[in-house]
Hints:
Helix content is about 35%, strand content about 20%.
Amino acid sequence: MENRTIYLVRHGHLQTVDDLRRYIGHSDIPLNEVGILQAYKLQKKIVQAGIQSVYCSDLSRSTQTAEIIVGDKKVPIISRHELREINMGEWEGCSFSDIANRFPNEFKRRGEDIENYCVRGGESFADCRRRVLAVFQEIMETAHGDILVVAHAGVNRLLLCHVLGLPLANIFRLYQDYGCLNIIHHDQAGYRVKLLNER
């Protein structure tokens, strides 16, 4: 594979009903005004990057962010459902505190085995990693030049754990704030992270 830079972005802030921390995986929620501003700030940061390939999740918060960053550049945006956030099944849309109160044993078990625990109707991080790494490998093998990937906190953490060689048990040691930028370089020596969670 050729030498290239991967600009890995988390979408901007969302239109949520309150400020509670919620499980928002496959729920399709658009950007709010803050999120739109974050996307424009990202555009200014990487406008001169010479990106030749753009990939994003097919959820609107990701596609909106990608469209703003690309702007009027004639670079096609390819949306891939494999880049969606982890599917939280029956916990989708629920607040962390609500789940901790209603399902204390399940909430505890997930915290103790974040890699393998699977919420009913959803997927584990191990499941999510398989689909994310498969599409990332495909992108790296077929895309040309520098790449922009606009995804989600969980997806970005999975990719960063992969390129850094970190076990999934450490996934939440990596911050991925709304509208953040990570820069990964790839060459014959492999992957190296040049920037992490820059806002």
